[in-house]
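User: My collaborator sent over this chain with a note saying "see what the structure looks like." That's all I know about it. Can you take a look?
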Amino acid sequence: MSSGSQNAASDAGLRRQLTAGQMAMVGVGGSIGTGLLLGSGAAVRIAGPAVILSFAAAALITWTVTMALGEMASLHPSAGSFGTYAELYLNPWAGFISRYGYWLAIAIAIGGELVASAAYMHYWFPGVHAIVWIVLFAAGLLAVNLRTVGDYGRFEFWFAMIKLVTIAAFIVLGAALLLTRRTPPQYSAAGGFFPNGQSAPLLAMSFSLFTFAGIEMVAISSGESRSRQEIPRAVRLTFGILTLVYMGAIVVLVGVMPWNGAGVAESPFVTVLRHVGLPAASHVMNFVVLSAALSGANASLYVDSRTLFSLARGGYAPAGLGKLTAAGVPLRALVASSFGIIVAVVMEKWAPQDAFVYLLGAALFGAMLAWLVALAAHVSFRARLTPAGLAALPMRSPGGTTASILGFIAIVASLAATWWYSRVTVLSGVVYIVGLSAAYLLARTQRNR
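Assistant: Without extra context I'll predict from the sequence alone. Here is the result:
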């Protein structure tokens, strides 16, 4: 059976209804969440104004991943995405650990988004316990994901558009304040551009990379795209939007607000608007960061259910998880993928002060593992292509194999750097690799019986 027919068989029953714009907004919705709107505070605390360099480097690394995934997705549109490409061009073990690692990471990230959402609601309702908000929001997300993918795509398009437009307005407002000197630039006001040393941007790289995590959701949604011609446009659109938004937002953020005033108890974007004397605007911004967190959780729940669905169709998860409802929704995979909601409730109960940072650190490695496998698969993919096959690709990565190799090295370096300020990510990585490898051996044994 050819790779194309394998993809078709594993994705059979999914409704191919997503347009390029809707696919792009799934990626944008999954990326612009707490990683940027709350996690950027942690990155700023580590690197100070030099965090701008961290985000610039993260954008370059993300470009290599985006182009590699886009190139493979244009030939193999699949809900399995990087997991499918790993099986096709590396080996079944790589496909298994990348998909399960990603599934676990995104499920945990959903919990992180809900914890952040509860923190945002505290701004308005300080007397309401966070768990109440987590449960209410979780019920709403499950309801949205139970609808057809066409309905889901339209909902996520406008959900993501709210935060996109408002963050763009934030960038324009911040730039106006800086250019008119109404707010003195803070780039070197508190200890210089490198207040924590010239190596600090490298230490903040993991947080910067995590803000871009979600861009791979475009490749996952390709399994439900209207046509292959939609995929290249969706990939380029997603990367272009995210890069402009992230770089513009972080430049304005550290320009308006003293870097040592950032944290994760409140979104630094809300802090900025209050800092410059716009209290009404801070309420609007809090609504936006709330919608951003919920949009991120919504997109994450969608792709996580499709990842588990893909594993089930490939024989690496219970067959029941590969079944679809009459609306084309993998209901059982959706319910199983929502376990991050329980994690959020537990973390909020037992470690409310550190819940977000712990969840972010635990999710980071699984997301980056998917990127590493995707880049490795792309190198093998290119090596197997004939010149004619390369010329016929609907989308091509300008950097080719070289860009993927450099991106791979850079991601490994940024993950290693997390050891010096938080060992959660590295320790999570060891647990991921060892635990998932053992699970793979068990699953393979069961399949061969």
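A starting point for your reply to your collaborator: Residues 1-9 have pLDDT under 50 and may be disordered.
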